[in-house]
Each structure stands twice: as C-alpha cells, then as structure tokens.
Amino acid sequence: MKTLKVYFATESGNSEGIANEIHREGTKKGYLVSSHDFNTFLKEKVSPEAFYVFIISTFGDGDPPTDSAASFRKIGRIARNFKKLDSGSKDSSESEYSQLKYAVLGLGDTNYSRFCNSSKTLIKHFETLKATSFYEAGFADDGTGMEQVVEPWVENLWSAIEKQSSGNSDGSAEPKPGNSISEIQDSKQSITSDVPETVEQLKTLSVNEVTTDEKEKVDLSSFYWNTFRTLKNTTNRKLNLDFSSFVNISKLQGVPKPIPSNLKLVKPKNCNIDSKSFADNLDLNKDVDFPSKMRYPQWLFTTNNNEGKFEYDSTLVDRVFLAKVAKVQSLTYKGASKRTLLFELDISPEIQTKQENSQSHVGLIGNEQAMNEWEAGDSFGILAPNDPNVVSAILNRVKVEKEKWHVPISLVGDAGGVGHHLKPFVVSLAEHENVQESTNEDPIVKENTDNSESGNSSLNSLFPTLFELFTYKIDITSCPKKQVLRVLSDYCSDPKEKTQLLILSSRSGTALYNTLRSESMMASILDVLNTFPSCDVPVETLLDILPPLTARPFSIASTPLSKTNMWRFGFNVVEHKLDGINELPDLQKEVKHDDDQGSTQLETVRYGVCTSFLDSIVGHPKHLENSPDSILPKFVLSDTLKLNSALKYVRELTPNELETNKDDKHGKNTIYIPVYYRQEMGKFRLAKLGDSETENHVENSVNGIEASPESTVSGKGKPSILISAGTGVTPFMGFIEQRLFEMVTKNITNPGLELYFGCRSYEKDFLFRKELEFYRNEGVLTQLKVSFSRENPSSVKQTMFLDGTGGNNTQQHAEIKYVQDILKQEPKSNEISGTIKKILYSDATVYVCGDALGMGKDVHSVLAGLLVQASAIEHHKQKILELVPADHPGFKDVNENKPISLVQANLILNIWAEIGKYKRDLW
Ligand SMILES: Cc1cc2nc3c(=O)[nH]c(=O)nc-3n(C[C@H](O)[C@H](O)[C@H](O)COP(=O)(O)OP(=O)(O)OC[C@H]3O[C@@H](n4cnc5c(N)ncnc54)[C@H](O)[C@@H]3O)c2cc1C
Ligand SMILES: Cc1cc2nc3c(=O)[nH]c(=O)nc-3n(C[C@H](O)[C@H](O)[C@H](O)COP(=O)(O)O)c2cc1C
C-alpha cells in the first residue's frame, strides 16, 4: 500500500480543507493517507517510501500562516546550513531531506503582491536540500477562484504518484474526459450508502436519561454574551441565478468527486449532563429558540494538539483568554458612510474568588504572558461567534428539531478526514461503544494542575451542542466551495435542482459560480439551501463539509509604554447590501421604492461576523453628533514636564468608559470577549528609539543587505513614513504614542514620524483628527498629510498638509483624491520624489497599513513608479542598486543611461519587504 503524507499550513482553513479532501480521496483509492499540520513535518524522519504533499497558504505580506511561521524559519535555517556545507565538501546524499519525494500546492491571491510566496519559498528550500519533486507545483489564486487550479491539481495528483512509483516521473497526467450529467447523478448511491441515519439518531436522544451534574449549575453569568441584535442578517434570501445557457448542455467538465460524510451525531455516553436541565438552564428566548445570553463554551479556551485532542495550557502566550471590554467609542461623525468604533480591552488577569465568578473560568480572564510581550503594531485574534439568528435559520432549514439544538452531542466517526476544528469532538465508534461512565470533572480547573493524559481525555469529555458548533466553529457566511455544492447536489430530490447544483460545482459552470462569489451576491450556505429547497442535507454532513470559522485579527492601536494591560483597536462595522429580496416581514430594513406605489421591499443585508458581534454586544454605538472642536488645547513642547502633561492629555482623549462598567466593575453586565495574542515577533513594529541593543536590528537580510538600526545618539530618529487609509491608521496611533513616550523618557526631540492618511471626509470620518492634529502641533509627527476622497474638488478640505509650520494648512489640490496621490504629487527635486529620497538617502522605513486590495496595491504601484522615475538619474539608480544584492539575477540587464524597469522596481520593493525596509500590514 502506498503511503501519502499530507501537510497543511493554513490561516483560514482552505489548505486544511484541501488536505482533508486529499486524505479522504486517497483513502478511498486505497492509499495509506494521513494529514498533519505543517509543524509536525520537521519533527519526523523522512520516509523514503512515502509521498509527501504540502498544501501551503500565504498570509500577511507574502508570509507563511501565523502558526507555521516558526517551522518555516526552521526549514529555512536547515536549508541555509546545508547550502553552506554543500558548497564545501558535503555530499548531497547526506541531506536528511534528499530522500523526500514532494509535491507542493500553494494557495494565494494575486491581489497581493507576493503571490504564493511561502509555498514558493518552501519549494526553494526543498530544492536546496536536494529533495525530489514528483509532481509539478500548483499555485491557486483565491482572487480569481482557487478551484481552477486546485481541482485539476488534485485530480492529477494520483496519476503523478502512480507514474513516479512506476518510474515515469514527468509529473504530467492524463486529461480527463467530461462526465455526462446522468452518469454523475448515478454516483449518488456511493454517497448515500455512507450517510448515517442522523436525524433518526438524534430523535432517539432521550432528554431525561442521565442525572444532572452539579457543576453545570455553577453561575457563569459573567461570561455570557448578549445575543440580541437590532441589526439582523437576512436569513430568507433566494438567489437569482440564470441557468439558461446550460439548457442544452449534456456533459459537464470538471465535476468534483463526491465526498461522503463520515460523521454521526449521537448522544454522548459518558456525559453526565441532563439534557433537559441543561437546556432549561440556558434561559431560552422562546421567540427565537436560542438563549438571550449565550455562554462561551469552555472548549473555546483550549487548543487542539497534534493528536486531535483538547489541551489547555495556562502558560501559553498565545492561548485564548477573556478580555474585558473596558471602553468603547465611535470614531465617526453623523453622516459618515461607515461606522468606525474604537474599543479598549483590559487584558489583565482578574483576581477572582470562588464566590465572585465561576471556578471553571478562573485563569481564563486576562493573560499576563501576553501583557509582557506585546508591542504597538502587533495584532490579536478575536474568536467571534456567528449571528445566532443565522445559526437558528440553518438548523431550521436542515430540519433539526428544536429540542435537539441545545443538547450535548458526540460526533462519532473517523477523525482522519475531519477538519482540525472538529477533530477533538470526534470519537471512533469503538471508543464510543466502549466508553466507561465517568464523572464530568471540571476539566479546565483540572488542567491547571494536571497535564497528564487523563487530563486531556477529561477535556475531551466536554460535549458541544449543535447550536454551539454552528455558532463558534463553522463558517456559515463565506461563499460555499464547489466541493460543498457538489455534496449538496446529492441530497436534492428535485432533479432540476440537483442538475443546477452540479453545474455550479463543475468547471463548466465556473462563470456562474463566480457570480455566487461576486460582491453583489456573496452567497452563503443558507442562501444556497434556501434557493434549492429540495436539498435535504443531514446536519452532520453540513458540519463536516463546511469550513472552520476563523478568528479575526485586529491591529493594536496602543503601546505598552502607556499601559501594559490595555489593547485599543479600531474597526469599521462591516455591512453589505446585497442583491435579492427578502420576503418575511420581520427583517429590519424597509426601503420604499418609488415605483412600488406604497408597497415595501426589504433590503438584503450581510453584516461582518466579528464586527457586527462587537457592535451588538456594546449596544450599537451611534455616530458622534458633532465634529471635533477645531480649536485644540495648546501645548508647547519645550520641556519634559509639558510633555508629561501632553501624555496625560492624550491618554484621556479617547475613548469613553463603557456605561455598563461604571458601577459594575466585575459584575454581571461586564462584557468579555474571547481573544488571543498573535505572537509574531517584530513583524509590524516600529523600531524603538534610543535603544542600541539587538531589538532595533532588523532580523532579516538578503545576501548581506539589511536595513540599518535606528539612530541612537543624536536625539533624532531616522524617518519612518507611515501610509494608511481608513482604519489602517489604527496601529500607527500606537506607533505615534510609542514615540511620544520615547520623547519623554529618552530626550528625543525629532522622532522622524511622517503620516500620510487617506479619509473620505474632513468632518465625518477623519479618524483621530483631534489627536493627530495635536501630535503634529507638538512635533511628535514631523509631517501629517491627509487626503479626503469624498470632498468636493473645489473644497479647501480636499487635503490637509501639516508640514512643519504648525496650524491647519488645508490646501486645495484638485489632483489629490487618495493617499497614494499625495505620494505621486510630492514635490520633486532632481526627478526624485521626497519619499524615495528619504528611503535612499536618509534610510527611511516605509510602513503601509490597511486595505490590501485598494490602497495597499495602489501605494505599491505608485512607489514602484517613483522608483523607476528616480532611476532615470544615474546616481539615484546606483543608490537604488546598492540596496539590492549585487549578484541578484533580476538586475543583470540593468544598463547605463537607462532607468530600471517596472518589473525590477517591483522586485526591489519585494527585497525591501524582506529586509524590513518596506513593511506592510494589509487586510
Ligand atoms: C493582521 C491583520 C490585522 C487587522 N487589523 C484590523 C484592524 O485593525 N481593524 C479592522 O477593521 N480590521 C482589521 N483586520 C481585518 C479584520 O480581521 C476583519 O477581517 C474585518 O474586521 C472584518 O471582519 P468581519 O468578521 O466583521 O467580516 P467578515 O464576516 O469576515 O466579512 C469580511 C468580508 O468578507 C467578504 N464576504 C463575506 N461574506 C461573503 C460571501 N458569502 N461571499 C464572498 N465574500 C464574502 C466580504 O468582502 C466582507 O467584506 C485585520 C486583518 C489582519 C489579517
Ligand atoms: C490578510 C490576508 C493577507 C494575504 N496575503 C497574501 C499574500 O501576501 N500573498 C498571497 O499570495 N496571498 C495572500 N492572501 C491570500 C490567501 O493566501 C488565500 O486567501 C488562501 O486561500 C488562504 O488559505 P488558508 O485559508 O489555508 O490560510 C492573503 C489573504 C488575507 C486574508
């Protein structure tokens, strides 16, 4: 039997989903398959017989996914060390990876400038280590539809393995003919025979069989979140899809293989919780059939170890913990098109007594390790739950009886092909049948003192409810993948619907599938199920095929130099108006249409999962009423005392304390959210001023080229050029605050910070205007240049440049609309723009933060264009080339008297990104 080992490095679950698909398909084909997190790869010895497949996504700015970053660094080190030895006397066969037979599938998005960079880097390392590629790499583009590459790549993987095994290793595969629709429809038997009788299984759950566990009655009132939303997602939309061009089609190309679900929902055998009392304790709101206040389940605070078990380790810096929402404020003013909120989280551990709070959550509030490590510009993840109204609509749609929604369940099946997010909940049939009755000890408390095996299995005995799984673990909003549509087609009793789903899942139906993903449609799983009413998919199959709900990262907008326990962050409340009409009257938004003669139509709205959760738990703060005062308190930066009072002033500027917290310090209404610190050391950080030690040195270097450390002696920082639009300015608020503190404590007079900022309107959404004007007036910002894209071109407020003279120098610049236009229009001397000049001659670092697809891309291409322009002058070109490795093949054809090409300019920016001279945090 051939062995196939599949490794995935993922941030949002796509790679893992594909790895699981390969796992299931390979198992069906008779291979011995296992799938693992990439982190386990380096811990194991390479098996010369096995075939290794790597599914690797790229995140951040061409980086590996967060959890795999350390493993990537390690394989990089191994490759570099081997290269050094190899160039000496070392025999290539001595590389421990020379026996490795590998294939790489990279996932990326061409909207980002370093497409599939981490998978390409991994390939380079494998090449250095003299490993053997048995199948050509594939690079899938999320921007245009990953399926276009993923499907044929996976389809041809098997023949590549067979060819390699039989000695023919050109990696190519036979083209596959299309399948006739009836042929595909006939394949249903293979699926249904594997489908468990789920609903029946659920029906047999007896709600009164076991006795109540006292511990479950513990008052957890401080750790609930309020499920009430005034802004409700549309839950009854039907999609308007035009299948007319497929009327005469008889064959479909590229229909994904059906993948049978292997899970069954059963009543857990070793669960001592009485289902009825459990549900009764929930305080169900009978109108909506879910609790008005939902408890954060204890398993949310655990991590999955490599064996697919729950683990809780209170010493981990990146563990999930509860952060208290201390303050909230709207940053936008009446009339703004988007609502932007600023939150302040308190991450300090709270000392709790048994009486005050549930013992089972002791240790879950705050994180001291994170308090000691974070810096301005770092990010943290929020584990936001889905909108319970949507969860409820899905459970109704797949016909789960209401009394089964909130009872603890077990997932029985083979954990092998199941996603990482569900693995710890899965028990094998044998395990389930042999399970001994056990006491349901509080696992989290137990884990604090006990790291033994039994501790882990105790954690494994925490049973989720269906409602919880769909609320915290499953992505129910993003557009369903083709593979999911393929599975759904098998459950349609109406042949027309079945065929339509097959079309959508096939390569032939790609154009139509792309409309599902389009900005105006953004079809969710619920939309699809509503559109195909004959689809009777079992709930456990749905659980199995949908991707995991991922944490949403946010950039920290404060500095620990101010308060170590306080994370500020800002965000837009995401809201999309979509195509389609609602039919039910209970939806919140009624829009009168002129041509409707008085009838009402309901808007179809989709809210962002995390930002709408945050917005609703704090009661939907409204825009601020009045624009900020134009007159600012005047401080003169002449001595430290004055600056200290400036510090105090800045601290108190924003935001407001939450009303609920004022008289209720640790009480029932205190709001907590589950978060974790994303430990990415030195990623998007402003180098510290005044420290001469290693932390100022840039970690990376490319062939000896590296960015120089910050200036330490002259009281002057080298320029840091900060470029952002919208909420992208938030981490820069932390940077600026950091510099203010350094000015006070390290006697630095010129911190060298320059901010370029794009807003829409001066009055409505100039975020942090008061603070920024203040910082500029006090010299913490050397320059502040703001563009307003929605101001009238004749308005003096179309731009605001505060560039050294102080005061409010709003100017008219008809040609400036967006922040990148400011860079383009900057005064030039000797054909070199101010920004490029600072990069080349003052060793400036450029930081870009915010929207990846619009601003991030445009700023990148403006910078590349400015580099080309500057290189027309020979001495500037030489200076540019000094900052790239001398032997880099990309610059061999640079001619005298000719500027560099745009391709070369992009390459230079990528090199600068690697050495930390051009840092981006884009989302
Ligand atoms: C390192 C990092 C730092 C970040 N820092 C910040 C920050 O400081 N502030 C901030 O506001 N954001 C930040 N973000 C972005 C943030 O993590 C969230 O993505 C953002 O707030 C929206 O989250 P949401 O859950 O509300 O929206 P989601 O529910 O994730 O929706 C977001 C987008 O997904 C798309 N979408 C939704 N449903 C569908 C569908 N069915 N089909 C197709 N497309 C769909 C839409 O384009 C929508 O705009 C950061 C991201 C990263 C990676
Ligand atoms: C914030 C963010 C940053 C990204 N950065 C890059 C990038 O630099 N290069 C790239 O090719 N793809 C980038 N992508 C695209 C992802 O690689 C792509 O969506 C992939 O399918 C994610 O797979 P995963 O779910 O397995 O992590 C980025 C996506 C996001 C959301």
UniProtKB/TrEMBL annotation:
Instruction: Give start and end of each Flavodoxin-like domain.
Output: 4-158
InterPro entries attached here? CysJ-like_FAD-binding, FAD-bd_FR_type, Flavdoxin-like, Flavodoxin/NO_synth, Flavoprotein-like_sf, FNR_nucleotide-bd, NADPH_Cyt_P450_Rdtase_alpha, OxRdtase_FAD/NAD-bd
Q: Does the keyword Flavoprotein apply?
A: yes
The cross-references to SUPFAM superfamilies, in alphabetical order and at most eight, read: Ferredoxin reductase-like, C-terminal NADP-linked domain, Flavoproteins, Riboflavin synthase domain-like
Provide the alphabetized UniProt keywords: Amino-acid biosynthesis, FAD, Flavoprotein, FMN, Methionine biosynthesis, NADP, Oxidoreductase, S-adenosyl-L-methionine
Q: Where is the composition biased (Polar residues)?
A: 179-195
FAD-binding FR-type domain segment(s) = 318-687
The GO annotation for biological process reads:
homocysteine metabolic process; methionine biosynthetic process
Spell out the molecular function terms from Gene Ontology: [methionine synthase] reductase (NADPH) activity; flavin adenine dinucleotide binding; FMN binding
Its Enzyme Commission number(s) read 1.16.1.8
Q: What class of enzyme is it?
A: oxidoreductase
Record bears the keyword Magnesium: no
**CC cofactor:** FMN; FAD
A GO CC term? cytosol
Taxonomically, the superkingdom here is Eukaryota
Annotated region Disordered: the residues are 164-195, 434-456
Q: Which PANTHER family does its entry note?
A: METHIONINE SYNTHASE REDUCTASE, NITRIC OXIDE SYNTHASE-RELATED
Name of this chain's protein: Methionine synthase reductase
Identify the species of origin. Smittium megazygosporum
